[in-house]
Every structure is written in C-alpha cells, then in structure tokens.
C-alpha cells in the first residue's frame, strides 16, 4: 500500500488509531454480526492474509447464519486485487444465486432493540 499522498497517510493513521490501541485490536463487529443474518452476505478472505488472520473469516461466517465464505488460498489481504478474475466470478455467482433482502423498518427496529439472541452463549474471539 502506497501512502505517498498526505491525505492517504492521514486517513490510514486515523483509521489505525481508531481500531488499535496498546493492547491490540480495540474494536470488533462480532457483537453485531447477528444483524447480518438478515442480509445476503458473501465473505471473501485471503488465506495468506497477514493483516487479519483467516480465523476471523471463520468466526464471522459462523456468526452470520446463511453467509457464504470463499477463501482465496493464494491471496493475502486484497484477494479482489490479487485474483480479480476469480473474485469477479465468485461475486457474480453470489449475486445470481442470492435473493435480495427486502428491508422492513419495523423489523430492523425490533432486531436492534432486542439485541443479539446468542450473546449469552458466545465466546469472545
């Protein structure tokens, strides 16, 4: 990743500071992934990702019922750039085989208000 432009460096540093502290990763979406069970979800991950380990993809896939996980064993953090033809094929296959979500505002409100139904059974990664 090239950070030659001042704006790029600023955005990168700001993002890193917002998610990483002295103890490591400080934020996670894991406690909100249950909401994604209502959305068609394709998880694409590089098997050689040295930035975010593939174990995170497995955890996300397990936390999102109905999700589809596609691992790119030869890719690192950017499988869409490292294997663009395969990425395009996988994305097209997902779109063609998946029913779109038809959001209902009241249903979302209830889901957000109720919280994660599996929170008492989940182990933090």
Topology, element by element:
Elements: H1 6-19, E1 20-21, E2 24-25, E3 42-46, H2 54-63, E4 68-72, H3 79-82, H4 84-97, H5 105-114
Parallel strand pairs: 3-4
Antiparallel strand pairs: 1-2
Question: Explain this structure to me?
Answer:
There is one protein chain. The chain is of the alpha+beta class. The chain has a domain at 28-114: Rossmann fold (3-Layer(aba) Sandwich), CATH 3.40.50.1820. The chain contains 5 helices and 4 strands. The chain has helices spanning 6-19, 54-63, 79-82, 84-97, 105-114, and strands at residues 20-21, 24-25, 42-46, 68-72. The strands form 2 sheets. Strands 1-2 form a two-stranded antiparallel ribbon. The chain has a two-stranded parallel sheet with strand order 3-4. Strand 1 (20-21) and strand 2 (24-25) form a beta hairpin. It is globular, with a radius of gyration of 17 Å. The two termini are 28 Å apart.
Task: List the keywords.
alpha+beta, Rossmann fold, two-stranded antiparallel sheet, 11% strand, 125 residues
